[in-house]
Amino acid sequence: MIRVAAVGDVHLAPDVRGRMRPHLDGIGEHADVLLLAGDLTQHGTIFEAEVVADEFADLDVPVVAVLGNHDYQSDRSDEITALLRASGMTVLEGDGVVLDLPGGLLGVAGTKGFGGGFPGRSASEFGEPEMKAFVHHSRELAEALGEALRALDAGFRVALTHYSPVAETLA
Length: 171
What we know:
Blueprint: E1 4-7, H1 21-24, E2 33-37, H2 46-56, E3 63-66, H3 69-72, H4 77-86, E4 90-91, E5 95-101, E6 104-111, E7 117-118, E8 121-122, H5 129-151, E9 156-161
Parallel strand pairs: 1-2, 2-3, 3-4, 6-9
Antiparallel strand pairs: 5-6, 7-8
Helix pairs in contact: 2-4
């Protein structure tokens, strides 16, 4: 059995530095891996990302993350990703990682996802250029996630996204 802890939308910023870390100490007693499902920062600034790195660095389990829309707000997502990776986290965007955990191999494929909708209630690549670009981007991310999942050579696989991939996850 693999024990997975997951959290998203933590929206960390300098004014909350140090508040989350005490709750993460000893996480290895309860989980084998921690998944972070985006919106790690409030406004996507480097100062906020430094707080995320401090709060989640050097845990006794691997930490795998994807970014969310808040993490893109200040157009610093590449720098945020690099900073988080330098702190020891794995940050995914259209790719995957296989972790050798006590319960077996866990493959995690990740993407921020996007707001394209769900079957029967989705946007289409029709009409205005902005709508076509929006839906095209959503489709590209979904296809990359699918490819990353299929490429994982692991007994267990998880899709890690920020946006809900199916309508039932919203209920």
